[in-house]
Amino acid sequence: MRKQGLLSLVLAAVAFTMFFVGAPVAAQDTVKIGFFAPITGPAAADGMSAKNAVELGWKEVNDGGGIQGKKVDLIVYDDRLKAEEAVAIASRLMERDKVVGVVSGSYSGPTRVVAPIFQKAGMPMVAGYAVHPDVTWNPNTKTSNDFIFRNGFLGEVEGAAAAEFAVKDLKAKRMSIIFMDNDFGRSISAGFAERAIKLGAEILSKQMYKFPGEKDFRPYLTTIKEGNPDVIFAAGYYNEAASIVRQAKELGIKSQILGEEGFDSPKFLEIAGDAAEGVIIATNLDRDDPRPVVQNFLKNYRSAYGHDADMVGASSYDAFMILVSAIKKAGTDPKAIRKALLETKDYDGLTGKISRFAQGEVVKPVQIQIVKDGQFRRRAIIDNPEIITPPMKK
Hints:
By secondary structure, the chain is of the alpha/beta class. The chain has helices at residues 3-21, 44-63, 83-96, 108-121, 155-168, 183-198, 218-227, 238-250, 266-272, 292-305, 311-330, 334-342, 385-388; strands spanning 31-37, 72-78, 101-104, 125-127, 137-138, 143-144, 148-150, 174-180, 202-209, 231-235, 256-259, 280-283, 347-349, 352-354, 356-358, 361-363, 366-372, 375-382. It has 2 domains: 3-153 and 291-363, Rossmann fold, CATH 3.40.50; 155-283 and 367-388, Response regulator (Rossmann fold), CATH 3.40.50. It contains 13 helices and 18 strands. Helix 3 packs parallel to helix 4. 52% of the residues are buried.
């Protein structure tokens, strides 16, 4: 869909929702929370992971007595990784389903399109892992979307953390970047490049590949091999990530491959096979974190679904539980929920201890994992305040 057509959809949805949101809502027997993710389509594995994890949290909440004695009703929609689908979902969640808050288990494209709709309607939303800055910021009005919160890292924060690790831990001086042509790839690679250059590293090349659809990365990797970088920073989702590392191995590339949260999936390990061994990623989940909230989730997820959890699921679980915690404290009034989210301090999250939200952006350490014996294991934790504190916008 062209941008003009999509903008018209958004504006129509905003007008439609604003007409009805002001109407009084009858008391409900349950607390309704909305959720959307790409459950089918090109990102179905991630969407199902997010859905599974949130449903695990939903069961835990209801088994524990719900919210203020009321059961939680989780309203689930599939956005199919389509922005226009997400716009329609936003309207349905508010008008038909009468939810009190929303969790995004989706990518940046669908999430940042619905953010201004929910913001205009005064509907709290917590995004699990979408990285684009426009999720929490309106570039047109130059104001924060103050009803929108992000549990995952801003793309530039995660990219900067990866660069910090590359230069200071790996002692890398020469780097190449390969990234996908979408919001995720552009923002996270820009954050990496900016921090790497600031730390004195040289960026030998930046190459952007088509998404979706790219399968042959050999031409890009051949160019990278000629420069013989210390580190290759690669940005992609699990399918692209697996192809990159497999084809890099086939070409005899010895450079350390440093990825990001898109690699953080059992599907990456499965598809990449032996080529995944030794790959390092910046992500949002530390499997070796000894805290009960982490180890219990990992055990319960595997027991429920028969495979290991990933960053997408863990981040979406946290987003759901953060919203539930705010509703427990504040009740179901949207402004009170927003206030409770803003006042979040030292929250013991699955994906790290959240010190606070700053303009809707999470402040917590970035996790560095390495693939050892076919599993993600702890390699480092980046907690430098200069890195993990998102830049404030004015």
